[in-house]
Amino acid sequence: MISDKQLIRLSKFLSLVLRHKPETIGIRLDPNGWTDVGELIEKSNGHGILFDREILNYIVSTNSKKRFAFNETLDKIRASQGHSVEIELGYTNQKPPEILFHGTGEKSVPSIMATGLEKRNRQHVHLSSDFGTAVEVGKRHGKPYVFKVLAEQMYNDNFQFFISDNGVWLTDSVPTKYLKQDEV
C-alpha cells in the first residue's frame, strides 16, 4: 500500500496544513479547525503531495498519537490539537487528574522554572496523563525531562483544562508554583 516513510511524510504534511499553515495549499479551516476532505486531497495533489481517500483514512485510523479526526459524516477533517492558527476546538472545561505530566528537553528546564509553562506559538500547553508519554515527548527535544503538574490544585485555583480528542490535556499556562521537578 504505502511505505512507513511515506506515511510519516504525509502525516507531517497534514500536521503542517491542518495545524499551522493551511494557506500552503490554499485551503481554509473553519472556526473549529475543520476543512473539506475532498478539497484537502485535491489541493494537496495539485501541490505534488499525492494521496487519496483510502490513504487519508489509513493515516487517521492508524496514527499512534491520533493527531487527526474526521467529523461524524466523514466529509471534514481537522487536527486534534497543537494549532498555531487561531481556532476554537469546542472543548469544554473539565476537571483534570490530580497530577499531569509535561515532557521537555533538559536544556529547557531553567527557562521553564523561570517563567512556567507557556503556550508560546500554540493555542495551549500540552500535558499528558501518564509519565511514559511525557518521556517520549521530552525525547523529541534532547535528553528528556519530565515535570509533574499539580493539575487538580490549578483547577481548584480556577485554571481551565480541556482534553483533546486524542487524550492530550490542554491549558493556557502553568505557573511555576504548580510545577514539581521529576527528572527522568
From TrEMBL:
Q: Which UniProt keywords apply?
A: NAD, Transferase
Example GO biological process term?
Answer: tRNA splicing, via endonucleolytic cleavage and ligation
Note the Pfam families from the entry: PTS_2-RNA (PF01885)
Q: List its EC numbers.
A: 2.7.1.-
- Enzyme's top EC category: transferase
Superkingdom of origin organism: Bacteria
Q: Where is the signal peptide?
A: none
Its function? Answer: Removes the 2'-phosphate from RNA via an intermediate in which the phosphate is ADP-ribosylated by NAD followed by a presumed transesterification to release the RNA and generate ADP-ribose 1''-2''-cyclic phosphate (APPR>P). May function as an ADP-ribosylase.
What family does the database annotate?
Belongs to the KptA/TPT1 family.
What's the protein here called?
Probable RNA 2'-phosphotransferase
Q: What lineage does UniProt assign to this protein's organism? A: Bacteria, Pseudomonadati, Bacteroidota, Saprospiria, Saprospirales
Q: Which gene encodes it?
A: kptA
